[in-house]
Amino acid sequence: GAGVSQSPSNKVTEKGKDVELRCDPISGHTALYWYRQSLGQGLEFLIYFQGNSAPDKSGLPSDRFSAERTGGSVSTLTIQRTQQEDSAVYLCASSISPDRGDAFFGQGTRLTVV
Amino acid sequence: DAKTTQPNSMESNEEEPVHLPCNHSTISGTDYIHWYRQLPSQGPEYVIHGLTSNVNNRMASLAIAEDRKSSTLILHRATLRDAAVYYCILSSGNTPLVFGKGTRLSVIA
Fold first, then answer.
1. Which residues of A touch B99 (CB under 8 A)?
2. Tens-place pLDDT, residues A47-59
3. In this predicted structure, which of A18-27, A50-59, B100-109 has the lowest mean pLDDT?
4. Mean predicted confidence (pLDDT) in B7-31
């Protein structure tokens, strides 16, 4: 595709339910990043993939959060037993390699936990 | 553990140049200096990055101090569409981009 694609664009879920957020990076980009942004706040780093491996998971806020990447392409961020504080915009970005400055961001998934 | 320091906000008049400063006194030899911006209700957008030499592209210029402990993003002619939060980020090798609070730029018509 032409850019980073995220789905769904909006998700409303009930507290306690699990959700899966999907990211389709730009073809050929080996590095993939997940961030979240709460209303009016800055970007919070969650996890970074190089290929299918995740050398840096330090930003995942709790063990309810997990992410995987298959085939060096699509990534899924899963949040189990969602809580209201998980409500945020979840952003995905990809770059050709980790040391390339130009990472491209998707439009994000707006998650609302009610 | 902020690696960069930026003013919280700045204001500019339309069609004037804007100089957005960033201090990074603990920069290492392998750290690149990246700038991204985030327009309202959008994901971040890459602006420019550099290592030691000044850099120019269609969006902006990046001036890097000789000791690399500071840098300045230069928008040569601000427009209303440049109103955004501008982030200065250090990154090297396999480290992810970690965003701080950035500088909120307001452009006045």
1. 35, 42-43, 45
2. 989 888 887 888 9
3. A50-59
4. 95
Chain A residues touching residue B91 (CB < 8 angstroms):
98-99, 101
Cβ–Cβ under 8 Å, residues A96 and A31:
yes
Q: What are phi and psi of B3, to 5 degrees?
A: -95, -15
Q: Tell me the per-residue pLDDT of B47-57, one tens digit each, with 9 for 90 and over.
A: 999 999 999 99
* 3-state SS class at B54: coil
Structure tokens at A14: 């009930």
d(CA B6, CA B19): 12
CA-CA distances (angstroms) from residue A99 to A15, B22, B27, B82? 38, 20, 15, 26
Residue B74 · residue B63 · CB < 8 Å: yes
Pair B12, B81: CB distance under 8 Å: no
Q: Which of B38, B94, B101 sits opposite A50 (nearest CB)?
A: B94
Residue closest to A92 by CA, chosen among A14, A16, A29, A15:
A29
Chain segment B55-72, per-residue pLDDT in tens = 999 999 999 999 999 999
d(CA B88, CA B47): 10
